[in-house]
């Protein structure tokens, strides 16, 4: 073990789930450095983390080959960053329970550097218009069982923020998380999915296509848990602090009183991050989480401009011509129709000979993109800027 680098010692600790960030911090404090802590005798280790865990770790260490494991990760195109790596994001390094390692699946060789978040944003940087080399990471999370209202809110904010250059962070769970990731991708943005399992474990399985779209679009799948680690309920709670830790702000769209999104909001507050919530109908059980947060001082948002103002940034709206050029074939068909005059959805469906549900989905995306709008007669028209 004498020739191992610090990364490999951290890799070893990361693969032993009995030692998390806080226990590793205690070990390094006691032994002075990660190498000494890793190779220490069982009797010495047990003084810090207890007899049972100390014994289990020594048994694990005897059978774990960090060099071989590193080779496996390279074959799987999984990058790993440890706490002392220069590419490890400062936003995570500065939280009290920083992940021992971060595992990354991305088409970008150095993802965190590509989105410009290795170091915390200074005020002068935030005040500048966002560019391709500087992005703000922003989390949008919520219930796995959203209402139509929640879906619309998540889609609108994720799309518009991504269009402005934000990188959207979420957990790839069903519901609000999935909507946020998808809307970000539709806007041509980058998105980060933080998993509560290994980055090579697609969960939920129904999000398989989304998983690969995130990677192939220049986004990233990340986790603090070693590849191959399957889903365990407690791990999802743990990953929430990473979602908030990475992000400059967190928006809770919908959730119950015991929602995991409230845990994310709690972490965000403890980490000094801004917490946002939309106004939500009091008749909906899914409104409990955002309304509770608003009572506790979360920032109420009704448009992305509220977030821009909070972060002291100015976003120049895209010209209509630029938006139209990015429309799909189906979207352009609809645009050409309503450009001649406002229409209700049934008329559009009749003209294009497509199901109303399909038309509504396309119209929803176009509304979020700011190309069209509904007037007082509930007809769709070209949006007037």
Cα-atom Rg, whole angstroms? 23 Å
Structural class: alpha/beta
Distance between the termini: 65 Å
Instruction: Give the tally of structural domains.
Output: 3
Largest sheet, spatial ordering of strands: 1-2-6-5-4-3-7-8-9
The counted number of beta strands is 11
Shape from CA axes?
elongated
Based on the structure given, which CATH architecture of the largest domain is correct?
A: 3-Layer(aba) Sandwich
Major sheet summary line: 9 strands, mixed
- What ranges have pLDDT less than 50 throughout 5 or more consecutive residues? 118-133
CATH topology of the largest domain: Rossmann fold
**For this structure, what is the CATH class of the largest domain?**
Alpha Beta
Q: Mean of residue pLDDT?
A: 89
Classify the helix fraction into a percent range: 40-55%
Beta content: 5-15%
Number of helices: 20
């Amino acid at each position: 073990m004498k020739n191992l680098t610090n990364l490999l010692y951290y890799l070893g600790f990361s693969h032993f789930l009995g030692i998390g960030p806080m226990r590793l911090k205690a070990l390094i404090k006691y032994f002075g450095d990660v190498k000494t802590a890793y190779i220490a005798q069982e009797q010495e280790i047990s003084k810090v983390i207890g007899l049972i865990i100390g014994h289990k770790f020594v048994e694990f260490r005897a059978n774990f080959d960090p060099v071989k494991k590193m080779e496996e990760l390279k074959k799987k195109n999984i990058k790993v960053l440890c706490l002392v790596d220069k590419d490890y994001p400062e936003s995570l390094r500065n939280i009290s329970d920083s992940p021992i390692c971060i595992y990354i699946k991305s088409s970008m060789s150095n993802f965190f550097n590509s989105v410009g978040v290795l170091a915390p944003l200074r005020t002068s940087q935030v005040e500048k218009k966002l560019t391709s080399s500087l992005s703000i990471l922003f989390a949008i999370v919520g219930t796995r069982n959203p209402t139509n209202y929640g879906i619309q809110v998540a889609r609108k904010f994720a799309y518009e923020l991504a269009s402005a250059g934000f990188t959207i962070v979420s957990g790839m769970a069903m519901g609000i998380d999935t909507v946020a990731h998808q809307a970000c991708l539709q806007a041509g943005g980058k998105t980060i999915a933080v998993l509560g399992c290994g980055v090579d474990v697609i969960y939920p399985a129904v999000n398989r296509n989304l998983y690969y779209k995130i990677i192939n679009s220049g986004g990233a799948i990340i986790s603090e848990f070693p590849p191959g680690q399957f889903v365990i309920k407690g791990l999802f709670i743990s990953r929430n602090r990473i979602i908030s830790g990475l992000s400059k702000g967190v928006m809770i769209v919908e959730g119950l009183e015991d929602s995991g999104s409230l845990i994310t909001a709690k972490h965000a507050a403890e980490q000094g991050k801004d917490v946002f919530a939309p106004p939500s109908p009091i008749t909906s059980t899914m409104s409990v989480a955002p309304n509770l947060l608003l009572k506790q001082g979360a920032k109420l948002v009704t448009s992305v401009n509220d977030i821009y103002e909070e972060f002291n940034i100015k976003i120049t709206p895209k010209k209509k011509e630029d938006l139209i050029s990015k429309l799909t074939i189906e979207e352009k068909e609809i645009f050409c129709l309503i450009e001649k005059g406002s229409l209700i959805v049934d008329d559009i469906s009749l003209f294009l000979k497509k199901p109303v549900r399909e038309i509504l989905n396309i119209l929803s995306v176009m509304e979020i993109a700011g190309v069209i709008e509904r007037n007082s007669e509930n007809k769709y028209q070209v949006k007037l800027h």
